[in-house]
Structures are given as C-alpha cells and as structure tokens.
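Bit of a strange request maybe. I'm writing a small parser for structure token strings and I need a real example to test against, not something I typed by hand. Could someone generate the tokens for this chain?
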Amino acid sequence: MSHRPALLRTLVPAAVALLCATAAGATDMGARRLVAEPTTDRLIVKYRPGVNPSVALPAMRSALAARVAGNRQGVSITLLRQTASGAQVMALNRHMTHGELETLAANLRAGDANIEYAEPDRILQPLATPNDTQYAQQWHWSNTTGGVRAPAAWDLATGSGVTVAVIDTGVRPHADLAANLVSGYDFITNTSTANDGGGRDNDAADPGDAVSANFCGAGSPSSNSSWHGTHVAGIIAAVGNNSTGVVGLAYNATILPLRVLGRCGGYTSDIADAITWAAGGAVSGVPTNSTPAKVLNLSLGGSGACDTTTQTAINSARANGAVVIIAAGNENTNASSSTPANCSGVITVASTGITGGRASYSNYGSIVTLAAPGGDSGNAILSTYNAGTSAPGADSYQGEMGTSMATPVVAGVAALMLSVNSALTPDEVKNIMVSTVRAFPASCSGCGAGIIDAAAAVQAAKDAATPAPINVTEAESNDSIATAQAVASLPATVSGSIASGTDADHYRISVPAGRTLSVSLLGAAGTGPGLGVYTALGRRLVERAGATGQTLSWSLPNRSSSAVTLYVRVNRSAGNTGNYTLTLGI
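Reply from user aminoacidic:
Good idea to test on real output. This should exercise your parser:
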C-alpha cells in the first residue's frame, strides 16, 4: 500500500487557496496565487433579526443606502441570493480589493442601521500545496520518526460508519477511491469559476481548474488543473487492501465530496453554505443532505480575520456534532492571519516533514492545534490524482506537499476515533488528539501540541467509550450454578473470598452476540484460587487450576447471533483460603 507526496496551496487574502508547497519532483500546486492584492466582486450583508430587505420600506432604505455607498466608490450593487444563515450576497459590477470593500462595507453600515454586518465575499483558493502496491512509499503512515503510527491504529479501527466531507475542488471517481464515495454536491454559484457549464447542482465531480495567464487577474500565472480534492480525499479514504495503488488512513470511511473551489478559487459564501450543509444543516434551494458528515476537511484558505459568515457556518456544523479541521496555510508566517484557520472551534493543522520538524512552508503560531505529516524536502505525500493537465484524464497517483496534505491526515484520525466511539463531541475529539500527540523529534516551534499519533488517539477514543467497571461484592449463598450471583452489567470487578477448601463461588453473566468475555482472577497473598466457565447445564467451557501468586485470565468469544448466559466459578485450588479479585469485561 502506498501514497505519494502531495502539495498544499497558500492562503490568499481575498481568496481561499489550496494549501500546497513545492516539493522536488512534485507538482507545484502552490504556484497558482494572485500576484496583485486579492479581489472579489461580491459582498455579504446580514440584516438584523426581524428586518426583511425584500419588504417595501426596508427594501427602499437598503437600496438607497447601497446606491449611496456604491456611488462613493463608483460601483453598483445588486442582490444576488441569500445564504443559509439568512445573509444577503450582493453582486458588484466590478472586482474590488479587500481594502476597498471594507470601506464600502463601512459606508453601507453607516447608511443603514438595520445592517448587522457587511463583509467581503472573499474568494478562497485550494491550499496547495496495506497490500496496496505503493504503500511502501507512504512514509507518513509508518515512518518511526515522522509518521503517525497508522498500522497500530488499523489494529483498532479503519473508519467504518463515518462520513468525512471534503470541501474542496470536487473529487474524481478514481478507481482507488470510488468505492468510498457517496453523492455530494457542487456549491459553486459562479459559472466562470465552476468550469462545468452551470451553477449549483448535484454533480461534485472535479472538471478541472486549469487557467491561462491573467485569467484570475492581471499578472496571475497559468496553471494546470490541480485535482486537489481528489488528492485530499485519497489521503483520508483511498481504498485499502485492494492490491492497488495507495491506502487512506480511514480506508473504510465514506467521503462526501462538496465542490466549492473552481478556477481562481471559490467564494466564502459558497464555502459557508457547504460547511452548513455538510453537517446536515439546511441550505435554501439545495436538497436535504442524506449522508451528513461528522468530520469536515477544509484544505483551503485565504488571508484576513475570520469572517462572520464562515464562523456562523462553523458554529452550525459544530452544533450538529461535526469536527471541523482546517489547514494552517503555507506562507511560513503566523497562522493568525490565515482564514478560516483562525476561526473559533476548529482544529488548525500545521505541516511536518519526514524528520518530524516543521515543514519549510508551514504556517505556525498560537492558533495551531497540532501538526501532521504534509511533506517537505523531497518527501511528499502520495495520493490519488488525475493525469489530465486541463480536462480529466486517466487515473494516476501524485506526490504533493503542504498543509492541505497534513489536514486530511488529521481528518482521517478523527474518522478512526469516531468509528470506535461515535458519541465523542467535536471538543472531545480535539482534546483527545491534543492529549495523545507525540513530542516533536525535530524543531517545530509554533506547531501546536505535537505530531498527531493515530494509534494513541484511537486507543484513547476507544477507552473513553468503555464504561468504568462496576464494583460487586460477593453475596452468599452462591455455591452452585442454581444459586449463582447475578452480575448485572459489564465490565465489573468482583471482590470475593474463599472460606474453605470446599467453598466455590458462582457468578451469572450475559455475553451479547458478537462480543468477547474477558475473565481475570487474582488471589490475595498466599492464595491460588482456580477458575472455570460453564454453561447453564453445567458443561465446562474452560477450567484452570490456580497457583499461588498467579493471575489466571483468558477470553471467550460469543460467535452466535444472540446473547448467551455463562457461569464463572471460583474455588480453592492452591495455597490458603482467602480473598480474591475477579475482573469481568466485554
């Protein structure tokens, strides 16, 4: 099984970008960034509760305020649509820089007291950046220095039953990924950005995002299609053990592809709607999400403070129980200026290389939660890709680097954790991840708590799902199967005593279908009680003589389709009579 390196894209102030950085021998997904200050041709305006801008009087006042504010900067403003949170998306007749739009927003607020907030609709860019035949190239899974201990995590979980939303450029139906894809949605409203001949629809397949020079603004470079979402999705859930290509960290999880980034990136308003919808929230004009995700991966970003539109969407997703995981960015600067990495309630991910130190491009700072392998210095992250330079071509595999690649590693860990403990809240997932990290083996200042440890995080999540054992005190008379003392629930710790050489204590327990009973017996000093397990008819399943100072233990699986009742017997076997501790679990 193997994955090749992948690239992250850099955060751009007016746009959310793919977080990828350039690696030797890897595609430069980070090349696509705007040379000039980022611009956008949309504004998001939210009116105070109870104000309906479509009703006559408020509409007249709003239109007048918009006309006056626009005239001051030589731009006209028209209503385009409403977001899931109730904010209005306003279209401008030309692109404006973020600084100009902040001035326009301030003028709007000054002219209309009914406006709760107004902010640029920023364009974000993609963050650039185990029998599977290329598994050996996936150093990030098992390298003892820079990896995440994936093989040990796979002994505990593979992601079954968990859906992860990849909010990105869309996903190609790659042969090494398609089995784990469910139908997603295309949230791109701008047809030029979409590059698929239409606006929003139920086709989340990536048509490509190649552009010619100057297409994204004066001075912007040409670039081939990034296939960024396909690469990200493969890191999370490329099919495992299919004797083909690479393996994803949560290779039995489901990927929900949501397309928000096209040519030149994607608008904040579209991304926010996708965040809301991904976790099961309602978005006007979009069908109900039949497969809500518990993990949201956003390998995208732009510069500036966290905007209200995005924060509102994140809050909605968290309220629905979704963990939101976001790339820190690739500018080698403080991530506090990267959005949505700087929003509240998210897990912000920095990138490390094979040495376990901070990748040369990775953002850093106090808002970073933790780090994960994203590749550096020629050791990229291998994943699913497409050979087409513009339109889709053949399936392929590609190595890239960036925080865009580190983020799906963390998303994959979250999926593994939730597959063993679905009751975990977003904050509990984050806290477990932080408390189980590995210390950095190399310098990684500002990279958060440490490198994520998949095995430790999954084990801690599993342990959190196991209830504390109940304490049971032996009650006589329990000298036979007919008079056995019932142990109401497991796990349990039984404190008992063998009073004589002929004393035998019996305990009745129920083992659910498909579960395994674990039994452990330890006598007090100088004692060596024996242990047996029997059916209701007295048929012996297991029996073992004790020895002084020895712990007896074994496991019995219930492979039937229904619960079975078993009887555990403790008797004097060696040494003195006295106290014992019997531990029962499933």
